[in-house]
Amino acid sequence: MSLKANPRLALLGNPNCGKTSLFNHLTRQHQRTGNFTGVTVDKKVGYSKLNEHMEARVIDLPGAYSIYPHSQDEQIVSDLLGCTSSPDYPDILLVVLDACHLKRSLLLLTEVRDLGFPVLAALTKVDAAAQQGIEIDLRSLKEQLGMQIKAVNTQSGEGIEDLKYLLSNPQMKKVAPYYDVTELAPELIGRMRKNYGWCSSYRCYQMACHFESIKWCGDEDREFISQLRDDCAFDSTTTQGRDTIGRYTFIDKVIESVVTLHRRKKRREQFTDMIDRYATHRYWGFGLLFALFFIVFQSIYIWTAIPGSFIRQGADSLASYLAGNLNPSVGTSLLIKGLLPATELLLVVLPQLAILFLCLTLLEESGYMARVAFLTDKIMRRFGMSGKCLMPLLSGVSFESAEVCRSTGRRGRFMAFLLHHSARIPLYMLLVALFVPTIPVLTYLNLQGIVLMALYLAGIVVSIGVSYLVRIFLNTQGIHSLFMMELPVYSMPNRHSVGVGMYEKFRHFGLEAGRLILLFLICLVMYNALFGGDMTPVSTAAAKVNDADLLAGILSYFSL
C-alpha cells in the first residue's frame, strides 16, 4: 500500500495504554492543541517525519474502549471515523495495544479494522506485562491478526524508529472481517450497502446503530435509516451484544494461542498491591492524599526560598539605584512603585509555579491520580458526579483537564464551566505572595503554604457545593454517567513525558491565567503609581518587622 507524501495518521487506543506518550515520541515538540469540531474536548495534533520524503499529520484521538459510544470521548472517535468529509479523517490508523490488557485492547482493534481502515498496531507496556508474568508471542499475534505490529517502549523510545518505517511502508493484507455482522441483519446491511455504496458491512451496521447521535448524518439519511430499521425490525441493543460476544469469541482464541501466563506475581506488582492497601483505603487513602498535597504546598515555598530571596534583594537594589539616579516624576513613580514591584512579584511566583507543576505532573505520571479518582468516586456520586471530576479540581493548574468533566453528564459539564474559567491555583499563589507574610508556624511549617492549601481546599468545597445546588435546582438526580478507569501499575515517571506535561501546563498558564494575572498587575501598577501607594508584598515587608508589628504592617499596607 502506498501513502501520499503527507498522510493523516490517527492514534487510537484504550485510556492509559501509553497512547499519549507514543504521540509525544512521534511528534516531539511539533504539536499543538485545539478542539474537535462542535465540542470542547482537546484535540492534540502534531507532525512526525516518517522518512526523508514523508511527514505525517498525527492526531491523538481520545481514549476509547469501543466505537460504540458510551461517553463523549467515544462519540468523538465514532464521529471522526465515520465522517469521510472531515479534515481529520485518517488515511491510516495506528492502534495502541496494551500488553497488560491485550484482550480489552483487541476489541477496539477488531472494530476499526472491520470498518475498512488501513490499520497498524503498536504494542506497549511489554516490560510491565513481563513483570506481571504475561508473555506474548508477537510473531504469532501478527499471523493471527494478519497485520503489522511493532513492540515499542514509550518510556525509553525503543522501537519508535522501526515503527516510523512501518508507517511509511505499510504492508496491508486483504483479510476477511474478524466478525461478519452481515448475519445479524442481512437485509438491512444489504440495502444500506446498495444505497451508500460502501464496501464495509460493519460501517453500514454502525451507522444503522448510531444514526441518531452521528453529527454528520443528514436529515434525509436519518429518515431513510429510521424507516429501514422499522422495516427490518432491527434491534440495535440485541445486535450490539451479539457483535461484542462474537468478537470476544475470536479474541479469546487469539489470546489462547499467543499469550502465556506465569502465575507468580512479580515484585513490581506486589509493590503496587502493597501501596494500594493504603492509597485506596476508605480512611487511610484520604489521609495519604491530604498528607501528599500538604507536603507539595510546603515544598513550593521551602524549595523556592533561596531564589525568592535573591529576586527580592535584586529588586530592592535596583529600586534604590533608580530612585537615586532618576528625577522625580510620574514616570519614575510608575517604574519604581509599580512596574518594578509587579515584576518582582511575578518572578517570585514563577519558580513556585514550576515546583507545583513538577509535583503534580510526577503524581499523574506515577499512576497515583488514578487512585484518587477511584477513592473519591463514591463521595462524588452523592453530588451527581464521578471520581473523574475531582481530577481537574486537584490538578487545577491544568486547564485542559477540565475537559475530563464534560464527558460525565450534565453536572460534569457545569463543573467544567467552573474549572475552565478559573485559573485557581496560580491566582491563589499570587494573592498569597502579595498578602501573606513569610513567617514560620510550629518552627518548621510555612504560613504561606498553609494558607495556599486552605484556599485550595476551600475552592474544591465551593465547586462541589455549587454543583450540588445545580443538581437540586435542575432536577438531574436521575442522570448518571458511565465511569471506567484502570488503575495502572506504579512506575517511575518518564523524563520526556514529565517535560511535555510541564510545558503544557506552563503554556496553558500563559494563555489562560497569564492574561488575568497581567490585567490584575496592571491595575495595581496604575493605582500605586497614580495614588502613591506601596506595592511591596506583605511577605517581603513582614521580613523587616517583628511579630508584634506584623498586624500594624498589614493594616498600613491597606492604608487603614
How many helices?
23
Strand order of the largest sheet: 2-3-4-1-5-6-8
Overall tally of structural domains: 3
**Percent of residues in β-strands:** 5-15%
**What is the subunit arrangement here?**
single chain
Q: Over the alpha carbons, how many angstroms does the gyration radius reach? A: 28 Å
Average pLDDT, rounded to a whole number, is: 77
Distance between the termini: 77 Å
Largest sheet: 7 strands, mixed
Class from secondary-structure proportions: alpha/beta
Label the overall shape: elongated
Low-confidence segments: 33-40, 397-422, 540-560
Q: What's the β-strand tally?
A: 11
Helix content: 55-70%
Description:
This protein has three domains: 161 residues, P-loop containing nucleotide triphosphate hydrolases (Rossmann fold, 3-Layer(aba) Sandwich), CATH 3.40.50.300; 81 residues, no CATH class; 228 residues, no CATH class. A hairpin with a 3-residue loop joins strand 10 and strand 11. The protein has a seven-stranded mixed β-sheet, with helices on both faces. Strands 7-9 form a two-stranded antiparallel ribbon. A two-stranded antiparallel ribbon has the order 10-11. The chain is an alpha/beta fold and 560 residues long. Helix 14 packs antiparallel against helix 21. The C terminus is likely disordered. The protein is elongated, with a radius of gyration of 28 Å. The N and C termini lie far apart (77 Å).
